[in-house]
Amino acid sequence: MRKINCTVFDKKSNKLKNVGFMEIKNSSNGNGELYLYGDIVSDQWGKWSDDDTCPQDVANFLKELNSFDNLDIYINSGGGSVFAGIAIYHQLKRHNGFKTVHIDGIAASITSVISCAGDKVIIPKSAQFMIHKPTASYFWTSLNADELRKEADTLDICQDSIRNIYMENVKEGITEEEINNLINAETWFTGETVTDYFNFEVEESSEKVASTSQFYDKYKNTPNKLLKNKIIKNNEHDELKNKLQTELELLSM
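and the corresponding structure tokens:
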């Protein structure tokens, strides 16, 4: 078993700290195993939990594998950064070994895109899969009308990219218009209903795996059960944002 150092941003020291290792395991069938069980973030500084993953984590992980090693990818994530997720999708897509994606609990937002990197996607009947329009959140800056229009154009391009990835994994006869409408509506699927549109393999439901994410309350149609899974880090995140906002307001006086 090989290990890769993993770091996370420590708010108290304002530095990155080592929180352990990402393990590269060999399963009983000889495959490598990758777990995406937290939010998807842009870099190490964006991590609020030990479970969060950024593209550099995946790059480091893949470097430790033989390029032809088969790979099992286990997903239980509420989403995260669009650009980071698309980067991870392409990293995994380029891996030469056969890739089997297991949606253990939920693949929402950008992790639904990442799941499409698999040569085979397996989803239990009780698991969930969500697709929606990409969004932008702003905290550190303010934008004028021209800048907002440019951001809207960027988001439209992101949606086109995401839709194209989905279209590579849909069943025969499913049109771009249908997928685009599902994206626009923010659609939540179960393991049973997602196979009406996507070429996924459904397995009998196993024990549900809890999923927590700071992104659930940003979606329109999040199931109530998932909203109850919000974790303490959300409160810590909000407290930090409020503190920083207060400090900025004081500096601007």
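(Above: one complete record from the training split.) The longest strand covers residues 15-26.
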